[in-house]
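tool_call: predict_structure(chain=1)
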Amino acid sequence: MNTEECFALIENKFKHWFEADKANNSITLKPGFEKIPQFNLVCVEGGEFKMGENGYYNFEKPTHKVKVGSFFMAEFCVTQELYRGVTGQSSSRFEGVDHPVEKVSWYDAVAFCNLLNEQLKLPKPYSGKDDGTKCNFNCVAFRLPTEAEWEYAARGGKAASKQYQYTGSDYPDDVAWYDKNNNYETKPVGLKFPNSLGLYDMSGNVWEWCWDWYDESYYEKCNSKGVVANPKGSDSGSSRVVRGGSWNDDSGYCRVASRFIHAPGNKWHIIGLRLVLAFQFTSEPGQEG
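tool_result:
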């Protein structure tokens, strides 16, 4: 779907949930859904891009061509206000309603997505438990981004005029909270410059969970296939991918191509999450849910 079709779908089928603002390329959750605060999402029109980076760490190589579909992504990572509004609790180390929620495991993150969808009377994308969790990528619902969706959005998607090292700049201080500028704590969301899509804090502040299991050979496998449509990582593994870097990392980890891994049960004060509202998902051949 292109941008016009994305907004048409929202206006035709999801008017009860969202207020559309095409001029600002965004939608806003309407008030009145229990204790869930309003939040904005920006439209990320699908397209093709080169994922990864050849000049840095081995686990970012090789660059490979990826095509992703369209989706909406939250302009901020999930705040403590939003997390508490949905779950009734927040165990973050650095407290503040407009600070990122942290100390959430991957299991907590998918449970949060399911609970948010349930409260909004949208489909729950996740089923199963723990390492057996499956995702229904073919329902319109809030979920975690795939690693490919995350990087495409961080790079600015089709809205990007050039490819930056960080999310919207080649200078980390413009866009990121990292170990040299944050007094070793998270900061309120939205204080740095956004990227060309209007997404904030995708470099630094907190790492963000993605759907994908990590496989050190996965990028090479994708590269051998040519252009891969909507990759979503290995079918199994021991660690899930996180993206974006954090307040505790040097700037190199805050680049758009940077990736790291954590066991899905880890609850660190450097990891949070960001939501996508996604549409029908066409996987690469051979992948199910």
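agent: The chain has a mean pLDDT of 94. Proceeding to next step.
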